[in-house]
Amino acid sequence: MPVLPMTDHTPSAPIAGDATTGLLLFAHGARDPQWAQPFQAVAARCSQALGPQRVALAFLEFMTPDLVSAGQQLVAGGCKRVDVVPLFLGAGGHVRKDIPVLMARLQAEHPAVVFALRPAIGEADLVINAMAAVALAPAGAEVPVR
Q1: Domain 20-131 bears CATH identifier 3.40.50.1400
Q2: CB under 8 Å to 22, separation ≥6 — which residues?
Q3: Distance of alpha carbon 145 from alpha carbon 100, whole angstroms
């Protein structure tokens, strides 16, 4: 089965009803472990909604697991379809070039599973609206500048 690009930027129906669809959240990664906390929080909320066996968080570099390992984990858990959600603000080189190569490797290893690439999360209207709302909100706590 081919890797399927998903280009619609509007929210789709939740995948909660399909017990064989996994959700692979994919972030860049960083050397500082604290950097991953917001992404871990997203993964935890998705796991609460779908079940931990259907959600994996992976990283491009510096952190583990990588996309291929996380995809293999979801397949081993019984997923027949895996939606890959890039937790990137835009579709730069990593989303357009690196992710498809990694997904092709997964597809070759698991030809009976559908791997679908969703748009970068920052391109979704819900995320754009949320970022604008936070930017326009009255100032709260300030981050100390060193």
Answers
A1: yes
A2: 54, 55, 56, 74, 75, 77, 79, 81, 82, 83
A3: 38
Where are the domains positioned within the chain?
Answer: 20-131
Q: Are the beta carbons of 111 and 88 closer than 8 angstroms?
A: no
pLDDT, tens digit, 9 for 90 and up, residues 39-63: 999 999 999 999 999 999 999 999 9
The region that residue 74 occupies, defined by phi over 0 for left and psi between -120 and 50 for alpha, beta otherwise, is alpha
**Residue 65: cis peptide before it, omega within 30 degrees of 0:** yes
DSSP state letters, 49-100 = HH-GGGEEEEESSSSSS-HHHHHHHHHHTT-SEEEEEE--SS--HIIIIIHH
Q: What percent of the chain has pLDDT over 70?
A: 88
The DSSP letter of residue 144 is: P
CA 118 from centroid of its chain's CA atoms: 8
* Alpha-carbon distances, residue 41 vs 37, 105, 129 (angstroms): 6, 28, 20
